[in-house]
């Protein structure tokens, strides 16, 4: 494992953990699944739980998924794209592109942001609002007891 990104489930992503990103000593166990069916893991050392990101848009990108997720989390927390661009050193266009891609994998990205980054539900909604995507499908109120549409013409 030199420059390759380790798979989630092989190391602890908690920076405060003694075995943070330590592939050799980490003891990670499977820890159930999220409501959306994403595999969740727990570090046996610090007890932190996290979800897998493999298979999402971040897999195989030049920029580590961690950086992309951090940028999205910052955005969700209300930071401006221009600020994130300055702090993280990414182009604004790049951050926006990630956001658009993230929106197309909304369920997985939501699970990761909420589980791994403690981003709140309302903040996630704000995040999708940037790209005009509804993270959750809103239940469309159905007209009940009405006549068939187009019947009276
Ligand atoms: Zn840990």
Question: Could you explain the architecture of this structure?
Answer:
By secondary structure, the protein is of the alpha+beta class. It contains five helices and three strands; from the N terminus they run βββααααα. The chain has helices at residues 65-76, 81-88, 92-103, 106-117, 121-130, and strands spanning 28-33, 39-43, 49-51. The chain starts with 27 loop residues before the first strand and ends in a 23-residue tail after the last helix. A hairpin with a 5-residue loop joins β1 (28-33) and β2. α1 (65-76) crosses α4 (106-117). The structure holds zinc ion. Residues 12, 14, 17, 19, 43, 45-46, 48 line the site of zinc ion.
Compile the SSE list and pairings.
Layout: E1 28-33, E2 39-43, E3 49-51, H1 65-76, H2 81-88, H3 92-103, H4 106-117, H5 121-130
Antiparallel strand pairs: 1-2, 2-3
Helix pairs in contact: 1-4
Name some characteristics of this structure.
153 residues; alpha+beta; 5 helices; globular
Strand order of the largest sheet: 1-2-3
Strand content: 5-15%
- Structural class of the helices, strands and pairings? alpha+beta
Mean pLDDT: 78
Biggest β-sheet strands, sense, barrel: 3 strands, antiparallel
Bound molecules: zinc ion
Low-confidence stretches: 1-5, 145-152
Give the SSE string: EEEHHHHH
- Work out the helicity level: 25-40%
Radius of gyration: 19 Å
Tally the beta strands: 3
How many H/I helical runs?
5
């Amino acid at each position: 494992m030199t420059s390759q990104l380790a798979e989630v489930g092989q190391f602890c992503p908690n920076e405060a953990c003694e075995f943070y990103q330590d592939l050799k000593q980490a003891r990670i166990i499977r820890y159930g699944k999220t409501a959306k069916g994403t595999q969740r893991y727990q570090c046996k050392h610090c007890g932190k739980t996290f979800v897998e990101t493999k298979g999402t848009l971040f897999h195989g990108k030049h920029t580590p998924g961690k950086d992309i997720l951090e940028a999205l989390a910052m955005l969700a927390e209300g930071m401006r794209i221009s600020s994130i661009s300055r702090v993280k050193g990414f182009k604004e266009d790049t951050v926006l592109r990630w956001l658009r891609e993230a929106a197309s994998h909304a369920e997985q990205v939501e699970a990761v942001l909420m589980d791994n980054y403690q981003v709140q539900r309302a903040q996630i909604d704000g995040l999708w609002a940037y790209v005009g995507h509804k993270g959750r499908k809103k239940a469309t109120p159905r007209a009940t007891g009405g006549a068939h549409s187009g019947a009276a013409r």
